[in-house]
# Entry
Amino acid sequence: MDDPNNEVNVVDVRAAEYYAEGHIPGAVDLPKDPRWETVEGLRRDKLNVLYCYSHVCHLAVATGVEFSDKSFSVMEMDGGMRAWREYELDIEK
# Structure
């Protein structure tokens, strides 16, 4: 996802072990540990699309609020990884 023509940066905020089991291709791993002390992986020049486990998980929203306050452009991917899998889209390990 580091294509210069791509205006989106996909960010996985689930626990690192879930990222390792499978994630959206090109997604950046940015787990909460215990708070997001780092912004490594986020991009100021792109829209950061955050996702977590499912539509009932609010981790992506919490991350979005925190990083929006730090002037990052963010949005939550509706449905999280569960929706991605339900649509049978590609998964990277």
